[in-house]
Amino acid sequence: MKIATYNVNGINGRLPVLLKWLNETEPDIVCLQELKAPQEKFPEKAIQDLGYHAIWNGQKSWNGVAILSRTDEVQEICRELPGDEEDIQSRYLEAMVAGIHVCCLYLPNGNPAPGPKFDYKLRWFERLTTHAAELLASGKPVVLTGDYNVMPTELDVYKPERWHEDALFRPEVRQAFKTLVDQGWTDAIRKLYPDQTIYTFWDYFRNAYGRNAGLRIDHFLLSPSIAPRLTAAGVDSAVRGWEKTSDHAPVWIELSDE
């Protein structure tokens, strides 16, 4: 089984890129972030025409997440991260797909830091960590994936010395990610490639993609009951070079059968 995560940076504006990638790679389950489309503007028919079931949590102009499945129905569990009833940002979606508990997330950027946006990011991280502990306690096979907006280590960022004051790399955020992983999650990319420079995002400016001046901010965390099934992982970095593409590239893992 192949599972992918992809921050599309506007699903309607990038729809030709998304459909081309889906058609070429045929992942079984896909988590999308940053739809930037209200609920009624999600391109459901175009997705269905490629053979995918879909659920989504849209929001006008900003945020938005979706879960697609090529083989099984997507059974929605929740569309809000527990812990703050007043949080109206569409950043989380949770479903059961093919026997796997799939959690799709778009963690806040947090800039400028320090400030209210950074505080919101840290609170969101705390809520995620609390919920993740409950998911682990269930013993279910859980995949916690999406755009985390954090580079966990200096290996995950081009020229880390330039990023120490950024909300994606501040020590508080890196510690929050470490605290989450230390609950018992497996970082799929680092499990298979512990020392390799791997990026998932390249800015549109200063020829970042051409220079490979990137960041690794899109992550797969696997629960102990599913981590042993991990057989492969990678980044479809060539997609970042396509015309009118997102500033992120799709990230994927492959799991063996139970």
Structural description of this entry:
The protein has six helices and 14 strands. The protein is an alpha+beta fold. The protein has a single domain, classed as 4-Layer Sandwich (Deoxyribonuclease I, Chain A), CATH 3.60.10.10. The chain has a six-stranded mixed sheet with strand order 3-4-2-1-14-13. The protein starts with a strand and ends with a strand. The mean pLDDT is 97. Keywords: Hydrolase, Magnesium, Manganese, Metal-binding.
Structure at a glance:
The chain is an alpha+beta fold. It has one domain (2-255): Deoxyribonuclease I, Chain A, CATH 3.60.10.
CATH topology: Deoxyribonuclease I, Chain A
Please state the average pLDDT score: 97
Tally of distinct domains: 1
Low-confidence stretches: none
Structural class, judged by helices and strands? alpha+beta
Q: In which order are the strands of the major sheet placed? A: 3-4-2-1-14-13
Shape: globular
The secondary-structure element order is: EHEHEEEEEHEHEHEHEEEE
Provide the gyration radius in Å.
Answer: 17 Å
Strand elements, count: 14
Major sheet size, sense and barrel closure: 6 strands, mixed
For the termini, the CA-CA separation is: 10 Å
How large is the share of residues in beta strands? 25-35%
Q: What is the share of helical residues?
A: 10-25%
CATH superfamily: Endonuclease/exonuclease/phosphatase
Q: What is the CATH class name?
A: Alpha Beta
Number of helices: 6
In the CATH classification, which architecture applies? Answer: 4-Layer Sandwich
